Amino acid sequence: MIIDHRFDHIADDEARRRAWIDSLSSFFVTHINPDAVVPASAFHRYHHMNHLVFGEIEASPQTIERTPALVAAQNIDHVVLRLYTSGRTNISTGGDTSEITQESFVLFDLSQPILSETKGMTGLNLAVPRRLIEGGGDLSSWHGQILPSARSPITKLLADLFRNVSASLRTATTAQMNHIVPATTALCNALFLSETDSAYNRPAVTGIAIRQFIDENLTKVDVGMLRVRFGMSRSPLYKLFEAEGGVYAYIRDRRLSHAMQMFLRAPGSRRPTIAQLAFSAGFENERVFSRAFKRKYGVNPKDIDGTAAAALSQQQTSQLLSWVKNL
Length: 327
Fold this sequence. Notes:
Layout: E1 2-6, H1 13-24, E2 29-31, E3 43-49, E4 52-59, E5 62-66, H2 68-74, E6 78-93, E7 96-100, E8 104-109, E9 114-129, E10 145-146, H3 153-168, H4 174-192, H5 202-216, H6 223-230, H7 234-240, H8 247-265, H9 274-280, H10 286-297, H11 304-316, H12 319-325
Antiparallel strand pairs: 1-3, 2-5, 3-4, 4-9, 5-9, 6-7, 6-8, 6-9
Helix pairs in contact: 2-11, 3-4, 9-10
């Protein structure tokens, strides 16, 4: 399946500019100078690859932003690996700005705000559910950052894979795709493993199993339960979640994500109360839940309707967003 946004059929410059902005609105708030022209050659195209979505883009000068309200409304627990193949881009996260040049990989955590300003670029994207690369540790710390050097053999191998995937997608059979997808996922995992790790690294494998167990037992899970279930003492258990700010922080973050999903999926007239959300997500009371929710999403849970209304409306009509959310 392919979603192909092209604009060469739109002759009017202003109409083409508006169409480009609208085409990105599912994921970004986009700003383009009124006097700037979006060229007819600009495009972005996406291919559904079972558990992955692969994208290709050629963009003119623009500023795109995932705002706190958009992040909160969508609650997408995925990351995007982008290979910049040409152009120059500045990326800002939390007040820090990095300049990205061509032949660089950057990771975007879709659960965090980000601002990107480019003077024009081309690139290849891969959207991956976080759960498929949990073995790589705390991916959120890589948000907006350039990944290991382009001179690294693993990075060069992944860049070559991206280019070859792009060339193969139009002709690959279903049987071939069944092999391409796990190979692509495995190489993404390899990028985030240190030289001392391996696919059979016991702590990494155990970490994945623990995270899956937490998701399956969100309302009742605690450290004592994890220690008994996995036969671990406190020190190795805490070390597995050190990069995430600790095991308690990880459980709290997953509970908040669960609460957001419950809220957004329920019909407007039957949405749970804040107290019901707090209880269903395993929080001890409404006050603790609301405070934690505000820290994570930047909005109070009671205000989510007004803050996210525009984003939610767009979400309902976006096929690409639907693809990503259902990977």
